[in-house]
Amino acid sequence: MRRSLPLPYAFTVLPLVAVALLAGCSTSKPSFYHQEDFSETDTYSRSFGASDAAVCEAARRALLGQGYIISKAQANIVDGTKSFQPESDQHVEIAFHIVCAGNGKADQKASVFVSATQDRYALKKTNNSASLGVGVLGSVSMPFGSSDDSLVRVASETIRSAHFYDRFFGAVERYLAPGEDDAAKASKTELDGPLPQPQKKESK
User: Fold this and answer.
1) Closest listed residue to residue 45, CA positions, set 114, 101, 91
2) Domain boundaries, position 79
3) C-alpha–C-alpha distance, residues 76 and 98, integer Å
4) Domain count, the chain
5) Predicted structure pTM score
6) Structural domain contains residue 126
7) Any idea of the CA torsion for 27, 28, 32, 37, to the nearest 10 degrees?
8) Dihedral of the alpha carbons of 187, 192, 198, 199, in degrees to the nearest 10
């Protein structure tokens, strides 16, 4: 003979079971920070046998050669963006952030750290209906009006493809030709060196 649970007990236990099930479902998805195990060190970085200024200059030229717009170009930092339009109502933008750091005091080797993000935008239309005042009745919205179109960012993600960064580092290596390091050092010396002293006139 089956025995049913007392009514007050059932009203107490069943909600607790439901809450536990909901909590288990909500925590089933792993957080993205669990993927950051910091074990890979060669996807976003590469070492070159040149100074940090020369490597960053090669990285700047690599982006310019692919149609990127450079928004920042310093001795050890380069930022650049490029726009794409896969569909008539979609817009994609890839942004590069490059940091060059010298390894050691000899200025003969540098590491390049690169991070690229991909932002997706969608076209959003907003209809603006016209309002017409009608005395004591107030304003009445009419069917005619204008529409405003604007791009709204709908997704943003760091590019994680190792092949993508391999192609970029390959382009940097091609632009890092012999002699580029000497030119970068000469330019840096001209900018950072002391100002020339005025020549003294010889007295007759």
Assistant:
1) 114
2) 40-120+155-178
3) 8
4) 1
5) 0.64
6) no
7) 110
8) -60
- Beta pairing partners, 113: 45, 99
The answer to whether 53 touches 184, Cβ cutoff 8 Å, is yes
Strands (E), the chain: 45-48, 69-73, 77-84, 90-102, 110-133, 139-158
Residue 53: which CATH number? 3.30.310.80
Token pair listed for 174: 């091609």
Rounded distance between C-alpha atoms, residue 93 and residue 67, angstroms: 12
Using a CB cutoff of 8 Å and minimum separation of 24, what contacts does 190-194 make?
none
Inside any domain, residue 127: no
Per-10-residue mean pLDDT of the chain, 204 residues long, equals 53 55 57 74 91 96 97 96 92 97 84 97 76 54 62 92 96 82 46 45 50
Residue written as token pair 């309002």: 131
Question: Is 14 inside any structural domain?
Answer: no
170, part of any domain: yes
